[in-house]
Design a protein that fits this description.
This protein is an alpha/beta fold. Helix content is 32%, strand content 22%. The protein has a four-stranded mixed sheet with strand order 2-1-5-6. Strands 3-4 form a two-stranded antiparallel ribbon. Helix 1 (14-32) links the parallel strand 1 (3-8) and strand 2 (40-45).
Length: 166
């Protein structure tokens, strides 16, 4: 834990993906004090025509204005300096419910900056959703997070190593 899934449209090079995964892992390790081997990151790239915001599709010529609409009836949008939207990002995080709000606020703020940097999305087009669960609802290697020895038991062992432990 955690499982961090980034959904974006294709804007990232292979090197940027590597750097994104490293940066998010480093931040999560430092801020949440989670060991690196329990942080999993998945990047899903979707075509621009599969993205929408405020009723507009990302391939629309006026997407930069339409995606910032704040009133459906008047079609009013908030002002922006951008002439186009180069990327969008949704980060969905499944994690144990063991972190305080101050820590989550810091994490979301810093994750938003990282996602914006690597996906080329304006910060108002980075959405982060944290889905918390009790540790017992998370399992890896046949053991749940409710087990006091989760960290050691959830790590891979060969049959030979298991026999030695017994």
């Amino acid at each position: 834990m955690p499982l961090i899934e980034l959904k974006t449209w294709p804007t990232m090079s292979k090197e940027e993906k590597k750097e994104f995964i490293y940066s998010v892992t480093e931040l999560t390790t430092k801020l949440l004090k989670i060991v690196p081997d329990k942080i999993q990151i998945v990047i899903h790239e979707l075509p621009k025509e599969n993205w929408g915001k405020a009723g507009a599709v990302a391939t629309d010529a006026e997407f930069v204005v339409k995606s910032r609409m704040i009133n459906w009836h008047s079609q009013e949008s908030y002002p922006t300096q951008a002439s186009n939207v180069d990327g969008m990002a949704i980060i969905a995080i499944d994690i144990w419910n063991t972190f305080d709000q101050v820590t989550k606020n810091q994490w979301v703020s810093q994750l938003t900056q990282i996602a914006s940097q690597f996906t080329h999305a304006p910060m108002d087009n980075v959405l982060i959703v944290i889905r918390e669960m009790i540790p017992g609802n998370w399992g890896q290697s046949g053991v749940t997070g409710a087990d006091p020895e989760f960290l050691s038991k959830s790590r891979f062992k060969t049959r030979k190593e298991e026999e030695i432990d017994e």
